[in-house]
Design a protein that fits this description.
The structure is a single chain. With 443 residues, this protein is an alpha+beta fold. The protein has three domains: 3-55 and 199-275 and 386-442, FAD/NAD(P)-binding domain (3-Layer(bba) Sandwich), CATH 3.50.50; 75-81 and 192-196 and 278-381, Protoporphyrinogen oxidase, mitochondrial, domain 2 (Polyamine Oxidase, Chain A, domain 2), CATH 3.90.660.20; 106-185. 36% of the residues lie in helices and 23% in strands. The chain contains 13 helices and 21 strands. It has helices spanning 11-22, 62-70, 98-103, 109-123, 136-144, 146-161, 170-186, 200-213, 255-261, 267-274, 345-359, 387-391, 417-442; strands at residues 3-7, 26-30, 42-45, 48-51, 57-58, 77-81, 84-88, 91-94, 192-196, 217-219, 224-229, 234-238, 243-246, 248-251, 278-288, 297-300, 309-312, 326-329, 332-334, 368-381, 402-404. The strands form five sheets. Strands 7, 8, 15, 16, 17, 18, 19 and 20 form an eight-stranded mixed β-sheet that branches. A five-stranded parallel β-sheet has the order 10-2-1-14-21, covered by helices on one side. Strands 5-9-6 form a three-stranded antiparallel β-sheet. Helix 5 runs antiparallel to helix 6. The structure holds flavin-adenine dinucleotide (FAD). Residues 7-13, 30-33, 38-40, 53-56, 223-224, 252-253, 257, 281, 283, 331, 376, 379, 407, 415-418, 420 line the site of flavin-adenine dinucleotide.
């Protein structure tokens, strides 16, 4: 079977490598950092180690729970009933049950009926491609009306997309609603969420070991600087090291990196890769001596708050995992040119925590046990107009031995590990097919 290099050792690269090796290929993963995991990697906070960005599992994430079972982690999967809050007009409001929805103060009864109808309508759409023709906010305005769009949807869209909210197509909001609706349907209408005991610090080594046991070689600290197809083999150059040849190379990195590494691509391919609009995130997290709320997620609609949501991991994960402290993430999603990128960690920490103190009576800096700031430039490819037909990168490139399998190919889903695994399963089967066919022709 042909030999394959996978560039990038995140959840996508590791799963891709595992699946290709299970199909008989000799696979080597090249990861630029000194650890695998990418966006899913964990890091220290105080004396504890937990995901740098928050991660939750939904009951509908069957590809992920299947992979967890395959790597032997089923018995470490924990589920809990969670609640969702809104921070509106300076108040924390629960929006976790149908009754709370009926009582939700910012909206009148007619608004609520239209909001419920919008969600139901979106959940019944099977083919989201036609929704790519329309802006998300226009679509929401049409079905939910102006007041609900202004009071609820626009802040929610900004919470997910920052200033990119206006660029998203209606397929984006469809994907969010479909994921949350699926979670509640499988969770008997109550919101159930899950995590692996130990977080991704437990998941990643288990996945890596499983892949290695299947024959995958994982090389960390190996930044790829160039990818070429010379007509008979594909080769990659590694920073500070040499060039290595393979029968095929799969790039799992974000589109700007693909473009930078594959200079042989055609101008049209580079232009298409450049059309993918990426959302970034700055995400401080805090270990606190006290809890903030009962909500796993609090959506923020008040514009003065510098972050776009509050994720209280310890509303789901037992606080004993953190010595009795609370773990809280304050993400802010950003466009590539947002001024926030130039703020240093201390400035971000102070500004965000000041705002949290204004929101939470009695909270003071003395409650901070530990903090850290995580940032990522290319987190999510925004589902812009006509995304799947005119923007999304294809698996095949003009270089027959070079393939792209990255999260920008999640056309109608939100970015999550489950979708990443579904994509890795699909693309690994396709890459196997291409390489096996090429090998047959040569033989
Ligand atoms: C704030 C936030 C919240 C999230 N919440 C959830 C959640 O609740 N639930 C959920 O399921 N998912 C969540 N996710 C999404 C999840 O983390 C991602 O879907 C997943 O980790 C993406 O994996 P990936 O392999 O596609 O990309 P990445 O993790 O970005 O992997 C790409 C890898 O390529 C490497 N690389 C880049 N350039 C090179 C190079 N030149 N040479 C070698 N290696 C290179 C990088 O170092 C990286 O390791 C969240 C993500 C973020 C940021």
């Amino acid at each position: 079977m042909p030999d394959v290099a996978v560039v990038g050792g995140g959840m996508m690269g590791l799963t891709m490598a595992l699946r290709l090796s299970q199909r008989g290929h000799r696979v080597r993963v090249y990861e630029g950092e000194n650890r695998v995991g990418g966006l899913a990697a964990a890091g220290p906070i105080g004396s504890w180690t937990w995901d740098r960005f928050y991660h939750v599992i939904l009951l509908s994430d069957t590809a992920l729970t299947g992979l967890l079972a395959e790597v032997g982690l089923s018995d470490r999967l924990r589920w809990g009933t969670t609640r969702t809050g809104f921070y509106v007009d300076g108040r924390w409001i629960s929006l976790s049950t149908a009754l709370e929805f009926l009582r939700f103060p910012p909206l009148g009864l007619v608004d609520k009926a239209r909001l419920a109808a919008t969600i139901l309508r979106a959940s019944r759409i099977d083919d989201p491609v036609p929704l790519e023709e329309m802006g998300a906010l226009d679509w929401l305005q049409r079905w939910s009306g102006s007041r609900t769009t202004e009071r609820i949807w626009t802040p929610l869209m900004r919470a997910k997309l920052g200033e990119n909210a206006g660029a998203a197509s209606a397929a984006f909001i469809w994907a969010i609603i479909a994921r949350m609706y699926a979670a509640r349907r499988t969770g008997l209408k109550r919101e159930m969420m899950g995590y692996v005991e130990g977080g991704y610090e437990a998941v990643l080594p288990a996945l890596r070991r499983h892949a290695e046991a299947s024959g995958v070689e994982v090389v960390t600290g190996a930044r790829v600087t160039d990818v070429m197809d010379d007509g008979s083999t594909a080769s990659i150059a590694i920073e500070g090291s040499g060039r290595v040849s393979f029968d095929g190379v799969v790039l799992t990195t974000a589109c700007p990196t693909v473009s930078r590494l594959c200079r042989q691509l055609t101008p049209a391919e580079h232009e298409r890769l450049a059309r993918v609009v990426y959302q970034g995130v700055v995400c401080p997290s805090f270990l606190l001596a006290r809890p903030i709320s009962d909500f796993y997620v609090t959506n923020i609609t008040d514009a003065w708050v510098p972050f776009t949501g509050v994720i209280e991991t310890t509303a789901l994960v037992d606080r004993q995992a953190f010595g009795g402290h609370s773990l809280v993430y304050l993400p802010r999603y950003l466009t590539q040119d947002d001024a926030m990128w130039s703020a240093n960690d201390e400035q971000v920490t102070m500004r965000f925590f000041d705002a949290l103190c204004r929101m939470v009576p009695g909270l003071t800096p003395a409650d901070i046990v530990a903090s850290r700031v995580a940032r990522a430039r290319e987190v999510l490819a925004v589902s812009t107009r006509r995304y799947s037909t005119e923007v999304m990168p294809a698996l095949d490139t003009s270089l027959p031995r070079v393939f792209i399998a990255n999260s920008a190919q999640i056309a109608h889903g939100t970015l999550n590990v489950n979708e990443t695994i579904v994509l890795a399963d699909r693309q690994s089967a396709a890459v196997h097919g291409r390489l096996a066919a090429a090998a047959t022709v040569i033989a």
